[in-house]
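DATA CLASS: polypeptide
GOAL: derive structure tokens

***
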Amino acid sequence: DVHWVSELTNLLFKTPEAKHGGDLVAFNVWRGRDHGIPGYNSYRGLFGLRKAKTFSEMNDVLTPDVIDKMASLYRSPEDIDLFLAGMAEKVDPSSGILGPTFLHMIADQFARLKEGDRYFYENGGQVGSFTADQLNEIRKTSLAAVFCLNSDGIKNIQPLTFRPMSEVNPRLPCSAIPTMSF
């Protein structure tokens, strides 16, 4: 969101003798500019959102008050810094804590890491690659199983560990969580 604690905007890396510290938000904007990262509007277009010609055309992912702030800071939507607008996007609670632009960026990054790593465990055709049967066995396990197998204190856990407990994701005994057979 657009609210930052003062420890990040005024006191970052503050030494005891200094009156003020750094500003993480400003550092991220500067970093983006130093590295020549295109503005927010470029990424809107790249990830399937309509490129905005006017500030009001960003109302699909930004709230009116954020749009007003952006309009007071920038001459055009083309000038908006990626970090500021990306952090200010509306969040769909079912998809996490990020708006659509940063969700797309992170998904793209993970896909490229997976596809570009010839040693990624699902990539075949390499010396030592897993067989189809071995991959099917590996896919039976989950993060919940990893937690159960590697923790003395966890006796019950929901199968989808990053999702809240619910009727479709109840807390179960570790013995009921599927795992692979070695």
